[in-house]
Amino acid sequence: MKTSVSVEIVGYSYSECSPFPCDDDRTCGLIACSPSGSLIKAYNALKEEISKEFGDCISVTLTLLDDGVPDRIKEIYSRDHPAIPMVLIQGSIMPIGRIALQPIRDAIYKVINT
After folding, report:
1. Other CB atoms within 10 Å distance of the CB of residue 28
2. Residue 11: half-sphere exposure toward Cβ, Cα within 13 Å
3. What is the tens place of the pLDDT at every residue in 19-57?
4. pTM of the shown model
5. In this structure, are residues 35 and 23 in contact, taking their beta carbons and an 8 Å threshold?
6. Which of 19, 35, 48, 80 gives a 20 to 30 Å CA spacing to 41?
7. Rounded Cα–Cα distance for residues 63 and 85 (Å)
8. Per-residue pLDDT tens digits for 4-29
9. What is the DSSP string of the chain?
């Protein structure tokens, strides 16, 4: 697999990973971070799962807003008003408002197959 895809999670270090409870009914597809509800733990779990499936052709990064908001994130927020955490695929907002493996995986495959 040679296509390079960037996945970026944007939020605050104290943010939750989702507006939904992190319990046995969760639909995010991540196990390693359960039941913390922590954005950082969910990011690490997502990165691990993406790496297992896609290898190193997928860049998964975390941008924390605690010490300031980068201009490019301000532009996205001004234009799209996304929920936190933001999920960006190839720099474009993915309007899901939570860290969830299946929709992020689907978005990666969409980029790879175009």
Report:
1. 21
2. 22
3. 888 877 778 999 888 889 999 999 999 999 999 999 989
4. 0.93
5. yes
6. 80
7. 10
8. 999 999 999 999 999 888 877 778 99
9. ----EEEEEEE-TT-BS-SS--STT--S---TTTT--BHHHHHHHHHHHHHHHHGGGEEEEEEE-TT---HHHHHHHHHH-PPSSEEEETTEEETT-S--HHHHHHHHHHHHT-
